[in-house]
């Protein structure tokens, strides 16, 4: 008697669950591979000024090339003046109708100095409108073996540098461009968060925390900006093969070129977007199937590998001003080397970049 109710009830629940899973999977696949591209949206910004911070770096440089190809005029902002100048010349040669201006700026300077420099630059160049802001400057200032040192061993000044580099400088640039975007009548802001905002990054907790801040900040501010016809999107990529992560290679790493292609393909979708299919698959499997803990183990493996690479470089060349700071303790170094060796075998086979 009872089974005549129980069996159909369980069967209905089963069918509904399978249907729901199928629906979610289809929606996810559509979103990752098929949804309409941002081309029409981006074409509205043709001829507008686009400010890119960290423009001379791996990802920033690729963005600059693609955006110039789409007819946007560029304001390149970076600490590396030589690389920017070389970029300016090659962009002008490739896209003669596009204007390219450069501003050498250290985003780690005091905020009022950075803001003063930006203001002076806009005045000197007679620019009163901006259409697009892309905040690419960011990364792990404390990369290397130091990040594997215990919290109490890391100098406070260094803890704060990751926050300033990734969060404070980004907020400053966003608030700086707002009046210029309002004047322009439309705007697009693209920020670089990271997948580490979801799973954490053992070894670089300040970096992961800063990227999580950007992710939630973007969620929270999206509505407010929309009223002024400004779209904001925070990208949450996994590993990209740039100097920031010591050119790590591996099946789930994306090249800067392919990442930027996908990012611009989806930039209007906001507020949070993990654009590259490889990264989106890792995120989906990590979050829904294997669990965040597994993702964190993967991130840790990569982080030990990065530390190992930084340490081996250190023996060959002196550290730069903004470069990694290393723990000199030989026992600590040995621990990192062993961990990198062990974990990259078990979790993440990578070949040298
Ligand atoms: N690469 C990844 O795997 C990955 C993953 C997720 C998210 N992201 C995020 O994506 C963004 C771009 O990453 P990326 O790999 O392209 O970085 P990158 O190769 O390190 O490029 C960063 C650029 O910013 C410049 N820069 C450094 N310090 C600066 C300062 N104080 N002021 C102004 N510019 C400064 C760098 O110049 P120098 O070369 O002279 O230092 C470089 O040109 C970052 O926000 C990063 O956190 C990257």
Describe this entry's structure for a reader.
The protein is an alpha/beta fold and 353 residues long. It is 56% helix and 10% strand. The protein has twelve helices and seven strands. The protein has a seven-stranded parallel beta sheet with strand order 3-2-1-4-5-6-7, sandwiched between helices. It binds NADP nicotinamide-adenine-dinucleotide phosphate. NADP nicotinamide-adenine-dinucleotide phosphate (NAP) is lined by residues 54, 56-60, 78-80, 105-108, 136-139, 192, 194, 237, 239-240, 242-245, 322. NADP nicotinamide-adenine-dinucleotide phosphate (NAP) binds at residues 54, 56-60, 78-80, 105-108, 136-139, 192, 194, 237, 239-240, 242-245, 322.
CATH topology: Rossmann fold
Overall pLDDT metric: 87
Helix/strand order, N-terminal first: HHEHEHEHEHEHHEHEHHH
Please identify which CATH superfamily we are dealing with.
Answer: NAD(P)-binding Rossmann-like Domain
- Share of β-strand residues: 5-15%
Q: Distance between the terminal alpha carbons, to the nearest Å?
A: 67 Å
Largest sheet: 7 strands, parallel
CATH class: Alpha Beta
Give the overall shape, derived from the CA principal axes.
globular
Helical content class? 55-70%
Give the structural class. Answer: alpha/beta
* Annotated CATH architecture: 3-Layer(aba) Sandwich
CA-based gyration radius: 22 Å
Record the strand order, biggest sheet: 3-2-1-4-5-6-7
Which stretches are low in confidence, meaning pLDDT under 50 for 5 or more residues running?
345-353
Q: Number of helical runs?
A: 12
